[in-house]
Amino acid sequence: MNKISLALASFVAAGLLAAGPAAAQSFRPSWAGASIGSTDYGTGLKVFLGGKVTPIFGWEGQVVSHGSEDLPLGRKHSAMSLGGSAVARFPLNAQFGAFGKAGVHYLRVKRSGPGVSSDSDLELGLGAGLLFNFTQTAALRLEYENIGGGDGDFFSIGLQVGF
User: Fold this and answer.
1) Residue 17 pLDDT greater than 50, yes or no
2) Who contacts 13 (Cβ-Cβ below 8 Å, separation ≥6)?
3) CA dihedral over 93, 90, 37, 60, signed as positive or negative
4) What stretches of the chain adopt beta strand conformation (E)?
5) Left (φ > 0), alpha (ψ -120 to 50) or beta: where does 148 sit?
6) Are the C-beta atoms of residues 154 and 142 closer than 8 Å to each other?
7) Which domains does the chain have, with CATH numbers?
8) How far lies 9's CA from each of 5, 21, 54, in Å?
9) Contact, 133 vs 105, CB < 8 A?
């Protein structure tokens, strides 16, 4: 069993070493953008930055304001998140593409009012979306993302620019 584990580890290490220069060369294009949409807390805003590691796989980092919500009895909820995701992008044709992503996000929920408290935690984020490329470097981005489960839904529309 140890010989099999050692052989597998050696194979993976050799593959990673060989892929390093190729991944560095295919890191472009990168992209950045912003989107606005509907969250469980109201209107949300997102700013994101990403890049390709291979023709299909890449990464994306984002900062999201999930909005705020006024509740009865003078209470208020708001949320923000900061996270990173692995992204898989699939061209559908010359103008349309699809993507999916999964990552980890620091989610902070602020609650104010009598008898409530705030909290923060690391949460799983999952998302999927469509891109409509209207130029070589600019795309309209439609996306659904969920960060942290029940109260983490975010439907958004935005602009993505490649560089």
Assistant:
1) no
2) none
3) negative
4) 30-39, 42-52, 57-71, 75-91, 96-112, 119-133, 138-147, 153-162
5) left
6) no
7) 27-162 (2.40.160.20)
8) 6, 20, 22
9) no
Cα separation, 76 vs 149, whole angstroms = 20
Per-residue confidence (pLDDT) for residue 74, from 0 to 100:
76
Distance, CA of 82 to CA of 87 (rounded, Å): 16
Tell me whether strands 75-91 and 57-71 are parallel, antiparallel or unpaired: antiparallel
Place of tokens 């953008």: 33
Contact 84, 67 (CB under 8 A): no
pTM score, whole prediction:
0.78
Tens digits of per-residue pLDDT, 65-111? 999 888 777 788 889 999 999 999 999 998 999 999 999 999 998 88
Structure-block tokens of residue 52: 């390709």
Tens of pLDDT along 57-76?
A: 999 999 999 998 887 777 88
What end-to-end distance do the CA atoms of the chain give, in Å? 47
Handedness of CA 133, 84, 45, 150 (dihedral sign): positive
